[in-house]
């Protein structure tokens, strides 16, 4: 049985985490990383799957993508809080704006992070005590790395179609091909 502290934060003994993201590669990498750090991760790709797992698991933590194939991760925040009032929720999105960030926090998310999100940043947000904001990362991603991650995400969203990715990123196809052929920056 899980307990919650007086502040409403999950007790550290319960390390169940619901991960909802429709990007298969990202979900698998993040899920594996979190499992290696001692969390029991239930990783799903849709709102419908998340509802089923959440009702059964009642997780202590959740990491939700904003845009999902069958709905909006923001809709899950209230539902998860109803199942477990002390749940710690972090919203992730590749399409962030101020309005959705405010809506996520008002709904009960503890933080709102842009994709690509570093696992350390996600854990810092999940584990920040009470209403405290997580500290900024000691070694944030370089601008080159953020750009590279964004290009990779759009490339995956376009089913690895170089021409479509170049069109969406408003860059020349050959420039994109050169970027994709290089290793990721640090």
UniProtKB/TrEMBL annotation:
One of its GO terms (biological process) is phosphorelay signal transduction system. It comes from the Bacteria. The keyword Transmembrane does not apply. Keywords: DNA-binding, Phosphoprotein. InterPro entries: ActR_PrrA_rreg, Bact_response_regulator, CheY-like_superfamily, Sig_transdc_resp-reg_receiver. The keyword Transferase does not apply. Gene3D superfamilies: 3.40.50.2300, Homeodomain-like. The modification 4-aspartylphosphate is found at residue 65. Residues 16-130 form the Response regulatory domain. One of its GO terms (molecular function) is DNA binding. This is DNA-binding response regulator.
């Amino acid at each position: 049985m899980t307990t919650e502290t007086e502040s409403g934060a999950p007790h550290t003994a319960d390390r169940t985490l619901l991960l909802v993201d429709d990007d298969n590669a990202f979900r698998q990498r993040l899920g594996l990383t979190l499992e290696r750090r001692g969390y029991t991760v239930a990783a799903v790709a849709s709102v419908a799957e998340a509802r089923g797992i959440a009702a059964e698991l009642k997780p202590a933590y959740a990491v939700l993508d904003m845009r999902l194939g069958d709905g909006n991760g923001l809709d899950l925040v209230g539902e998860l809080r109803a199942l477990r009032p002390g749940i710690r929720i972090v919203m992730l999105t590749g399409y962030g704006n101020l309005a959705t960030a405010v809506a996520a926090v008002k709904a009960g998310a503890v933080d709102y992070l842009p994709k690509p999100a570093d696992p350390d940043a996600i854990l810092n947000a999940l584990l920040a005590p009470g209403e405290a904001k997580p500290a900024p990362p000691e070694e944030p991603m370089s601008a080159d790395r953020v750009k590279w991650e964004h290009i990779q995400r759009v490339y995956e969203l376009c089913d690895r179609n170089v021409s479509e990715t170049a069109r969406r990123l408003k860059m020349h196809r050959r420039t994109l091909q050169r970027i994709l052929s290089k290793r990721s920056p640090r």
